[in-house]
Amino acid sequence: MRYFIYCRKSSEEDTRQIQSLDTQLRLLSDLAANNKLEVVEVFKESKSARLANNRPLFNLMLERIQKGEADGLLVVHTDRLARNFTDAGLVITLLETGELKEVRTPTNLYNTTQSLLYMGFDFVFAAHYSRDLSVKVKAGMESKLLKGEYPGHAPLGYLNVRPGKGIIPDPQRSLFITEAFNLFASGAYSLKALSKTLYKNGFRTKLGKRAYTSVIHRILTNPDYNGVIVRKGKTYPGKHKPLTTKAIFDTVQERLANKSRPRKQIHNFIYRDFMNCSVCGCKITAGIAKHKYTYYRCTNGKGHCEQHKNYWSVDKVESLFQDFFSEITLSSDLAQSSFNLYRDSVLEGKKSEENHLAVLQQQLDSVRKRLGRLEDMWLEERISSNHYDTKRKELLKEQSDVENSLKGCRNADPHSTLELVEEIKNQAISLDKIFSEGDDQVKQDLLRSVLWNCTFQNGKIVSTRLNKLWQPLENLNKTSEIEIWRKWWDSNPRDP
N or C: which terminal CB in the chain sees fewer CB atoms within 10 Å? Predict the structure, then answer.
């Protein structure tokens, strides 16, 4: 078998104790050498896996696996592959179709039906970790903002001081920032003229050049210079010293608003990326008629499709997708009943596992006591050295076997797992409601999570293809047999 090595380090992890790319490569190279594995290429990527379609090298690697250039993947942990359900589904799909034969880590091998189930839960935990970490980071940031502490790199004209002390005016550049606000508020300067004047007075970029008008504009529109901190539309009082007054800042904003030009509008057609023509296979595009009405139609990229003559309004398309989500939304009662069975099974399995661990621990304690007694007998010269050595090797071998058995037992908290699975269940029974009540961004995110693509013809959805993690939903509502429902939780993300 041929293997790709994949090493990933999130860009936001630069200051945290996360294994570096070089460390990951060393561990995986040792794994390949010790097991005599053939490595055909190494991929190293510094990208976050929290969001889907964020890693070009990862996507390229999967494409090359589909072409047959490698049969397996070596990673230090499965969370290096994905921290979101979309990318996780891509990996598991390749494993299920056989295009990817196995995934190896220094401690685990994923190449069987049971191991894919464990991998699925690993991906769930990884996704949960990312969401939980994001919540904690936002909470920490909110606490700093409420205290008036500047939460990041100091803007031009300020300097960062030690943690907890915020920012202070830069003795060399802060005077130029104040001068910029005062001169522009006077009404006698344009942005270009102000840039030239500041350069003449000594204001330079790091390269010693004149600041572009875009830099000057960014300075003049930054409310942080007014003694406040604005983040995501909320304003917090800052502890740092302002470099201009609120009155001057407001005057500058009024002048800039009067001189601003209208920007070209960029439209977000939220359904376009998920629609293909059923007749010719081309993409469905979107446009705006009379600067008011949004419509969708076939691009007719091959030049012989009659479907491009049909136009579908955005309301029509949205209604079709609403019907689609209504069809795959799970029955609340059946989903809860099947989850209850799954929960009882998991807890019962955990109880059996704990009993097994207790037996193994008793065996380990017994072996250690026997080793102690054997040493006492040898020290008391009640047994010969040869007998002592032979018996000691046997006991050490037995101790090693028991310790390996203990390491092989999974000891995860079932309640955490059940909470995550229940979260998935709650989403599955609310898909139609999430879509109908969500804004454009929510609708687009939901489509990207659930739907791979769909085909249209004559203004109707002809076929749909769900992402792997959600594929069992397509036919689940067609049966009321609780055992089939239960298998969805038990075997997710495989088909029941």
Answer: N
